[in-house]
Design brief:
Blueprint: H1 6-12, H2 18-21, H3 39-50, H4 67-80, E1 84-88, H5 91-103, E2 108-112, H6 117-125, E3 131-135, H7 140-143, E4 148-154, H8 166-173, E5 178-181, H9 186-189, E6 199-203, E7 217-221, H10 223-236, H11 242-252, H12 255-274, E8 279-283, H13 295-299, E9 306-311, H14 314-324, E10 329-330, E11 340-342, H15 354-359, E12 366-370, H16 376-391
Parallel strand pairs: 2-3, 2-4, 4-5, 5-6, 10-11
Antiparallel strand pairs: 1-7, 6-7, 8-9, 9-12, 11-12
Helix pairs in contact: 1-4, 4-11, 5-10, 12-16, 14-16
Length: 413
């Protein structure tokens, strides 16, 4: 189905055998163990799975393989145009698995900040006995060592929405594999492997599931990396529950529609925030000033549905906005049908050092907004009322400044 559009793939990927099975909805296999008809065949399958492969006849035990999880993995791999994909119980489990594979190849990792706070914290903790060198997108090459085993970037980055040129980082990395956390973009807007990356990581908890009711991580990769990642999953037990896989596979059917609808709302909200006197700065890839190298047009199909902004008045004002919104949900996570607002410096990135937060521009007044599927007018009315109440402004104070508008051009997936 590789010739089909992404929307079509989202609907049909992982469902090629439905007619043969005589079903219309994906089967959900909740088995923890599977009966063994032939011991010799089972032994061969055990050996295959222990080495990171997929069984030919029998999954043996759910920690090793599950048909529902495999369906989701095949579908996600199609959307990423990858050889394979490997799913885990959380995004952090997926990150950890990639680092454990890398650790077998070398003891050094290059990271480009900002990254998701949990990933940053894991690298800084040295829990996996890995040295990390923090680089900018332009200094990845200079940070490389003989024992560098992996380069990690996130684009758009969490929470500043920094865009990183994947192809340029791959060039600087040379033979060292590059992992791209593409959670904010999803396969709808960005496919890192097409730009030379080795690994494309998603927190499936976010847009892939899309309804705030599933936790997962998944990495799309070539066959060699997929086998190595599955081997780590077998060894560590960081499995994805089949119910979660079922929900993720179902979520892919509406992924394109959801991402584009939320993106349209984010474009409208970003432009209104830029015109509000109570907002000092807006971070959004669709704003030209946030993308001086014009990476968006070369690498993505649109700016996405995530944005951040600095509230005038710092921490107290930001906390008050979170307190005063009524429809918008003050909560971490993102990519759900409802709009979420949170404070990066105090929540998702609290676990990284204060100096690192400051260096990356995570100010005390920054709020991150995950725009959902509500009417943009309703989202704005709630947000603007909270800003106005916090700043003791009248409605007339929220007049537009004369600034360039947010770029709205997107390419259909």
């Amino acid at each position: 189905m590789a010739s089909h559009s992404l929307d079509t793939l989202g609907v049909h990927a992982g469902r090629d055998d439905f007619r043969r099975l005589g079903v219309h909805a994906a089967p959900l296999d909740l088995s923890t163990t599977y009966p063994i008809d032939d011991l010799a065949d089972a032994i061969r399958d055990i050996d295959t799975m222990a080495a990171g492969g997929r069984p030919e006849r029998n999954a043996i035990y759910a920690r090793l393989e599950n048909p529902t999880v495999s369906r989701f993995e095949r579908a996600l791999a199609e959307l990423e145009h990858a050889d394979d994909a490997v799913a885990f119980g959380s995004g952090m489990a997926a990150v950890t698995a990639a680092l454990l594979v890398a650790r077998q190849r070398g003891a050094h990792v290059v990271g480009v900040r900002p990254l998701y706070g949990g990933t940053d914290h894991l690298l800084e903790s040295r829990l996996l006995s890995l040295d990390v060198t923090w680089a900018t997108p332009d200094t990845v090459g200079a940070a490389m060592r003989d024992d560098t085993a992996l380069v990690i970037i996130e684009t758009p980055a969490n929470p500043t929405l920094l865009l990183v040129d994947i192809a340029d980082v791959v060039r600087q990395a040379g033979r060292v594999p590059v992992l791209v956390d593409s959670t904010f973009a999803t396969p709808v807007l960005q496919q890192p492997l097409a730009h030379g990356a080795t690994l494309s990581l998603h927190s499936g908890t976010k847009y892939l599931g899309g309804h705030g009711d599933v936790m997962a991580g998944v990495i799309a990769a070539n066959d060699d990396w997929a086998r190595a990642l599955r081997q780590v999953r077998v060894l560590t037990g960081a499995v994805l529950h089949p119910m979660a896989a079922y929900l993720l596979h179902r979520g892919l059917q509406t992924l394109g529609v959801r991402v584009r609808a939320a993106q349209a709302g984010a474009i409208a909200i970003a432009e209104r925030l830029r015109a509000h006197p109570g907002v000092e700065r807006v971070y959004f890839p669709g704003i030209a000033a946030c993308d001086p190298r014009r990476i968006l047009a070369r690498q993505m199909r649109g700016p996405g549905a995530m944005l951040a902004f600095d509230v005038a008045g710092g921490f107290d004002a930001a906390a008050a906005v979170m307190r005063d919104v009524r429809m918008i949900v003050p909560a971490v996570s993102l990519g759900s049908t409802d709009t979420l607002i949170q404070h990066p410096a105090g929540l998702t990135h609290r676990v990284i050092g204060e100096a690192a937060r400051a260096a990356e521009g995570l100010s005390p007044g920054m709020l991150r907004l995950s725009v959902g599927l509500e009417s943009p007018d309703d989202v704005w009315a709630d947000l603007e009322r909270a800003l106005r109440a916090t700043l003791h402004e009248s409605p007339a104070a929220s007049t537009r400044r004369s600034e360039p508008s947010v770029e709205t051009t997107t390419v259909e997936a």
